[in-house]
C-alpha cells in the first residue's frame, strides 16, 4: 500500500492570501472546504480510503464499509496497530533525506522531493 506523509503546514499554506487572495468569497469557501476534506482524508487512519473518496463525491460504495485493499483496510484486516508496526524502512528513508540536507531544518516538500528522487547518500 501507499504511505502518506504530510504535515499540518502542508494544509495551512492554502489558507494564505497567496493562494486565495484573488478568489471570490464563494471560491475561497470552496477551497477551504476542499482543503479541509483533504486534511481529514490524510489524517484518518481508521476509515476506508476508497469509501472516504466516494463519500466526498456523494457516492455509496457497493462493498460496504471496507474495500479490503486500501492501507487502512489492510491494517484493519491484519489487526496491525501502529503501536506494533515496524517503521524502520520509513524512518530510514526520512532520516536519509534529513542527512542529505546536512541535518539542517528543511521543508516537508524538500524532504519529500529528496526521498522521491532517490538522491539519498
Give the uncertain stretches in residue-range form: none
* Rg measurement, Å: 18 Å
- Shape by Cα distribution: flat
Largest sheet: none
- Report the helical percentage: 55-70%
Task: Output the number of helix runs.
Answer: 7
Content-based structural category: mainly alpha
Terminal residue distance: 25 Å
Question: Any descriptors?
Answer:
single chain, mainly alpha, flat, about 55% helix, about 120 residues
Describe the structure.
The chain is mostly helical and 121 residues long. The chain is 55% helix and 0% strand. The chain contains 7 helices and no strands. The longest helix has 19 residues, at 25-43.
Note the topology.
Blueprint (H helix, E strand, L loop, with lengths): L7 H5 L4 H4 L4 H19 L5 H8 L14 H8 L9 H13 L7 H10 L4
Helix pairs in contact: 6-7
What's the gist of this structure?
It contains 7 helices and no strands.
Amino acid at each position: 500500500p501507499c504511505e502518506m506523509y504530510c504535515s499540518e503546514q502542508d494544509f495551512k499554506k492554502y489558507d494564505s492570501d497567496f493562494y486565495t487572495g484573488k478568489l471570490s468569497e464563494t471560491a475561497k469557501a470552496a477551497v477551504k472546504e476542499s482543503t479541509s476534506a483533504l486534511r481529514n482524508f490524510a489524517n484518518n487512519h481508521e476509515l476506508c480510503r476508497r469509501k472516504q473518496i466516494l463519500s466526498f463525491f456523494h457516492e455509496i460504495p457497493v462493498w460496504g464499509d471496507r474495500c479490503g485493499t486500501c492501507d487502512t483496510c489492510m491494517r484493519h484486516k491484519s489487526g496491525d496497530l501502529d503501536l506494533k508496526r515496524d517503521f524502520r524502512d520509513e524512518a530510514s528513508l526520512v532520516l536519509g533525506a534529513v542527512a542529505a540536507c546536512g541535518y539542517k531544518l528543511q521543508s516537508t516538500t524538500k524532504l519529500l522531493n529528496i526521498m522521491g528522487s532517490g538522491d539519498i547518500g
